[in-house]
Amino acid sequence: MSRQIMKKQKLSTHLIVNINVFVVVMVIVMASLVYSFTKSNTETILEEKTFDIIELLEQEAIHYINHPINEMQNIKERLNSDNSIVNIKDIFYMYNYLYHVDVINYEGEIIDTIPRIDSRIGMDLSNSDIYTDIRHTEDEFVIGHMLIDAYTDEPTMYISMKYKEGYIVGYLNLIHFQQLLESINIHGGHMSIVDELGTYISHTDVEKVHQRTVDPFSKSIRDEKILNNSVVEYLGKDVNLHFRNIEGTNWLILFYQDVEVLNEPIEKAILANTIVFLLILPLFILMTLRVIRRIDRSLKQLDETTEDIAEGNYEIKDKSFNYIEFDNLFNRVKFMSVEVSTREEEILSLNNELESNYYTTIVLLAKAIDAKDNYTGNHSVRVRDFALLLANELNLSNHELKELKFGATLHDIGKLGVPEYILNKSGRLTDDEYVMIKEHSQTGYNIVEELPGMNLAKQVILHHHERYDGHGYPYGLKGDEIPLLARIVTIADSFDAMTSERLYRAKQMSENEGFQELRENAGIQFDAELVELFINGLKQCD
Questions:
Q1: N or C of the chain: less Cβ packing under 10 Å?
Q2: Does pTM top 0.70 for this prediction?
Q3: Are the C-beta atoms of residues 126 and 136 closer than 8 Å to each other?
C-alpha cells in the first residue's frame, strides 16, 4: 500500500513539474511570438513607407518627363504647319520646362534655336552622339542619356522628335529631379534616378550626378540578376536595395536604405513590446500558478478516490472541487464505482463458470483421445495430476498452474490424427508408423494454435517429447531451451507410461521401478532437478 501511495505522489509531483514546464514553454513561445510579430509588423510598416516614397518619386518623375514631351509635341506641330521658329517662341516661354531647343536638319546642322543663340546656328552635329542616337531610331521621340551641358555646366537630358524637315532636340535641366530628391525626407540611405545606361540623373549626393557616375547595380537589375529588397553593399555599408522602373521610360528609381537605420525602429518596437510583455508576465505567471494549485488539489482528491476504488472500497465520500468540471468528473467516478461494485460479483461468477465450462470441454476432449487407445485409460487425467504435483514443489504462479493443467490434459491431442491400428498395435512399429507417432506433437500444436490464449499450454503440447540431451522431437531442443512446463509434463507422461499397462511392454513397472528408471535417465531424457522434486513429492503423498 505504501508503495502505491508513493507512486501516486510521484505521479502528482510529475504532473506539477510538467505543468510548470508547460508554463515556461508557453512564456518562451509567447515571447517568441511577440518578437516575431513586432519584427514582422514593423518591417511591413517600413516597407509600406518605402513603397510610398518610391511611388511619390515615380509620379513626380513622370510629371517632369511628360510635360517637356508635350511641349515638344506642340513645337513639332507648329513647325510642321508654318515652319516658322518665330511663331513657336510664345509656346516655349509659356511652358518653359525645356531651357533650350535646337532645330536640326537631316544633315545634322543646327538651323535655329530657342531661345536664339546665334553662335549655334550652322553648327554641325552630324558626328555627335546626340545626332547618331536620333538618326538611327524609328521611334516618334527619343529620351536621351544624361550629359553635362557645355554652356550651363548643369546635368542635362535631351529629348528629340522628328518633324517634316529634320529633328527637334529639347534640353531638360535635371535640376528639377535633384530638387525633387532634396524635398523627400530620406532617413538613412541614398535615393537616385538612373538612365538606361545606369548613369545617375539625380542623386542625394549631387556630386555623383556631375561626375556622371554609373550605378554599380543597375545592369544587374536590368538583367534580373538581383531581387528587390536584397541586401547589398553600397558605399561601404550594408543596405536594402529597393528599385522600380519609371513607367514609360528606361529609367530606374533606386533606394539604398541603410540596414542599421532600418533596424532602429524594429529594435525600438521590439523593446517597447518586450517591456509591456515583461510587465504583464508576472501577473500571467501568478494566475497560472493559482490555477495549477487548484487543479493539483482537485487531482489529488480524484487520485485518492480512484485509489479507494482500485482497492475495492466502493463507498465514496462526497467531496467539493474548485472547478465544476472536476465536480462532474467526480460524480461520474462515483457513479462508476457503484456500477463496478454491482457488476463485480456477476463478472466473477460468469468468469468462473466460463473457465469451468472451458476446462470441462478440455477434459472431454482428453477422454476422447484416451478412448482411441485401449490401454491408456485415463492417461491424460493421471498426467495432469502428476504434473500438478510436481508444480506444487516449484511455487509456480496461478497462471502457470492453469496453463500446465490445460497443457497436461491435452498433451496427446495430436493422437487424434494417428490411426487406431497404430496406437493399439502390440508388435514393433515400422519406421513409417513410428514417424506418424512422432508427428502427433506438431499435429496437436496445429490443432490448438488458433485457440485464444493458452500460449504456455500450446508449448507443452508441442515440446513434451523433447529430451534433455537434445535427441527428442519435434525440434531437438536441449536443456533449458525446453520450456519448463513441457519438462514437467515430460516426466509426468513418462512416469505414467512406465507404471501403466501397455501393449508394447510385458508387464507394468512398480512405483519404485519407475523412480529408478527416472533417475537412470536424469540429465539424459529428463531434467535431473525436476526428477528429484517429482520423486520426493510423490513419496510424501503415499
A1: C
A2: no
A3: no
